[in-house]
Amino acid sequence: MDNTYKSAGVDKEEGYQTVSKIKKAVSETHNSNVLNGIGNFGAFYQLSGYKNPVLVSGTDGVGTKLRIALDVKKYDTVGIDCFAMCANDILCHGAQPLFFLDYLACGKLDSDIAAEIVGGIAAACKETGTALIGGETAEMPGMYQVGDYDVAGFCVGVVEKDEIIDGSEIREGQMIIGLPSSGFHSNGFSLVRKIFPDFNEEFEGKPLWETLLVPTKLYQNDIFKIREKVQLSGIAHITGGGLIENVPRILPKGLTAVIKKSKVKVPTVMQELMKRGGIAEDEMFGTFNMGVGMVGVCDAKDADTILNLIEGSMAIGEIQKGEEEIILK
Q1: List of E strands, 89-174
Q2: CA–CA distance, 186 with 239 (Å, rounded to integer)
Q3: Sheet of strand 234-237, all strands in order from the earlier edge strand to the far edge
Q4: Angle at 296 between CA 65 and CA 170, to 5 degrees
Q5: What is the set of domains in the chain, with CATH numbers?
Q6: What does the angle CA 108 – CA 109 – CA 110 come to, to the nearest 5 degrees?
Q7: Residues 12-54: pLDDT tens digits?
Q8: Could you report the per-residue pLDDT of 183-219, keeping only the tens digit for each?
């Protein structure tokens, strides 16, 4: 009887191949603060150059957007999604991402697929100056079907204590500025897949899956560019729950975010989803980003500066006194 780990469905050699294939891409994200490489039980990152640093962390995954990537066998963008969902979260507090760790689970490991997924994570890390310093690849037959993968990540960033953004400075009369999304990002895909069951249908001259798999936008450059010019009192990452659930998370008690729906530039693919599925507008705004991937709150006098600075940005509302957390009108 062949009672080996491989006979139980776990191929250690494929795992070694995965490490070999991702090693170069991972090492290219490292900087002088990374004190060790692949192979140790823990990753070492040295903090330097800060007066009173506060670490900010976030974790997230890609969700069922992965199902589309797996079905059409395109694996190079979902890693970007994984990184962006985590890094955009900590960016809401003004944090610069320092390092990232990923978790990849599957039923049967294919080193080429794993390398493509991790390669996307590494590319996003490299673009933002973040070190990919660790990760875990778990082959779990019996838990996942052959061909299935799940991806999650964990990001740690840093911000000076006196520069933390937490929404406490938001005041009545300030403006709400929306930064454009690149599409659905990584939220609401269970509903997307229900309404769009055929990913290969043509949409705007190309297969629909190409539009659906556009990766989550990385907002780091936009946010830091804005903060060089003006002060932001609050930042919200518009993820699951849309504007309705995420904007109130940054508001002090007694203030209301009044959003003008007419000012929100809804992507055509979301308009098509709403039409085809007969989805109520409130359900759309409470599930998807509707074209607004990040929201910034600023003084009214600074709104035009942001609008001129960031292409596609929108003045979508203002802060008013009130007990309702958010009003869409």
Answers
A1: 96-106, 131-139, 149-160
A2: 8
A3: 234-237, 292-298, 175-180, 314-321, 255-259, 326-328
A4: 130
A5: 6-163 (3.30.1330.10), 175-328 (3.90.650.10)
A6: 120
A7: 788 778 878 888 888 899 999 999 776 678 889 999 889 999 9
A8: 999 999 999 999 999 999 999 999 999 999 999 999 9
